[in-house]
Amino acid sequence: MSWESFLYMGGYAVYVWPAYGVTALVLIVNIVLPVLQRKQLLRELTIKQKRSQAR
Amino acid sequence: MSWIPAPVSRFFHRTSSPPYFYALADRFIPWLTVIFIVLLGAGLYGGLYLAPTDYQQGDSYRIIYIHVPAAWMSLFIYVLMAVMGGIALIWRMKLAEVMLISSAPIGAGFTFVALVTGSLWGKPMWGTWWVWDARLTSELILLFLYLGVISLYGAIEEKRAAARAVSILALVGVVNIPIIHYSVQWWNTLHQGPTVSKMDKPSIHVSMLVPLLLMAVAFKFYYLIAVLQAAKLELLKRETSSQWVKALLEKQA
Amino acid sequence: MPIIGAFWAIIRRDLLLAFRRRAEMANPLFFFVLVVTLFPLAVGAQPNLLRTMAPGVIWVSALLAALLSLDGLFRSDFDDGSLEQMLLSPHALSILVLGKIIAHWLVTGLPLLLVAPLLAVFLGLPEQAMGTLWLTLILATPLLSLIGAIGVALTVGLRRGGMLLSLLVLPLYVPVLIFASGAVDRAASGLPVDAQLNILLAMLLSALVLVPLPTAAALKMSVN
């Protein structure tokens, strides 16, 4: 099977690839978002801790 | 609870301690990620490349490899949430509360995926972007059930009370899911929609079944990774003033 | 006081309180009729179309009327502290809650039956479906109060829980809607409706048993 015919998906490409795309997007977001928020929270907490220790 | 054997209850006591669980999650996530990638790769390769083209639906049927596992996950996660809710209510286990609320957005995400992929699969088959087919309608209601859990938790300020509330809601919801599912199915046969749902393949060839099952298992491992990441965040949020978080911050500096 | 005495006392109290504001009791009725009136205005007044839509329109409107009246179930007791007193009482909260739900249904759900004939006339619902319409209203409106009570108990402590309440309760209402409007629809075509009515009855009986406990648990959470 050639690359072109694979991407073409028998004419249904406009349905199949967005479907896989949306899925990938949702799955990525549900991992990346918590990780980023956690890193952000750790940063904020570290700053707060430094401030309270400096007193 | 005397009927629980000592090693098991010791395991639960140790694991449900937030710092231990946090560290445990960090150890597990890399391994889970490896397994997930392998299963995902195998499933996608089998489904998109190896599996033959469907006689009736052409290559559009390949959406099944994400639509069906996503729908399965949407139900599985809700049931899991109800179980965690029961554990949280009966044993007042903080970790169960955290896992419950961490699972909700993931479950909602899978439900959303099931709806969107279902719609994209349906358009070339039925000619419209939406049909009131039994499965899609049930998934839509399930999405609202998830959104209800997420909204209720967000609306209650005191998070332990919020966790109790969503535990009750999850339990009430899980009792209703079979009722909703069957009543929607009955309703659907009554108002005869378009021809028999192409989404229920009566007999599926093994070359198509194996990638489907691989994807289903892959999604389960994905869920574990995602819920652990979300649980770590939720634990941090809840325990900012505790000793172990302070120690964690020191270690990071 | 034995628990059964407390049960009747709660019902008497709530009915008394509701009757003191008799005028307000008519509000769900007016809403019910008003919403049904909106549909012919929105879709046009062709008799055939309205007749086909009648069971669904009547039932969706009944659902919305029930939803709007739910807030009154625990609101005033929450605001003036009576709810806290009920939590502190030696009686099982579940039984008191069941009493409140029954009183609430008597005041907001049962009256909807009074206007059902009017709505049937508005939408051209066939005569042969009237009996079924009444039966479904009698069976399903208590169900709506019961299922709704869980949602109210979860959100009564929130300042603006109205929309959230709808989000929580409407998905749970879907099976009731399907069977109630389905039954009226079938009756309108002269078909038998035993199955639907039996299912509604089963749901009602289960709800009577299963609803009070989680509702009480949710109230305990909300009040604290």
The share of residues in helices of chain A is: over 70%
Shape of chain A: rod-shaped
Counting helices, strands and paired strands, the structural category of chain A is mainly alpha
Mean pLDDT of chain C: 93
Subunit organisation of the chains: heterotrimer
> Which structural class best describes the helix and strand composition of chain C?
mainly alpha
Q: Major β-sheet of chain C, in short?
A: none
- In terms of DSSP E residues, the strand content of chain A is under 5%
Mean pLDDT of chain A: 89
Name the helicity range of chain C: over 70%
Describe it for me?
The complex is a heterotrimer of chains A (55), B (253) and C (224). Chain A has 55 residues and is mainly α. Chain A is built from two helices and no strands. The termini of chain A are far apart. The mean pLDDT of chain B is 88. In chain C, α8 crosses α9. Chain C contains twelve helices and no strands. Chain C is elongated, with a radius of gyration of 18 Å. With 224 residues, chain C is an all-alpha fold. Chains in contact: A-B, B-C. Chains A and B meet through α2 of A and α3, α4, α7 and α8 of B.
Secondary structure layout plus pairing:
The complex is a heterotrimer of chains A (55), B (253) and C (224).
Chain A: H1 3-8, H2 13-54
Chain B: H1 6-15, H2 18-50, H3 64-91, H4 94-126, H5 134-155, H6 159-190, H7 206-238, H8 243-252
Chain C: H1 3-20, H2 22-25, H3 27-43, H4 47-70, H5 75-80, H6 82-88, H7 93-108, H8 112-123, H9 130-155, H10 162-188, H11 194-210, H12 212-223
Helix pairs in contact in C: 1-7, 3-4, 3-8, 4-8, 4-9, 4-10, 7-9, 7-12, 8-9, 9-10, 9-11, 9-12, 10-11
Feature tags:
heterotrimer, A: 55 residues, mainly alpha, 0% strand, C: 224 residues, elongated
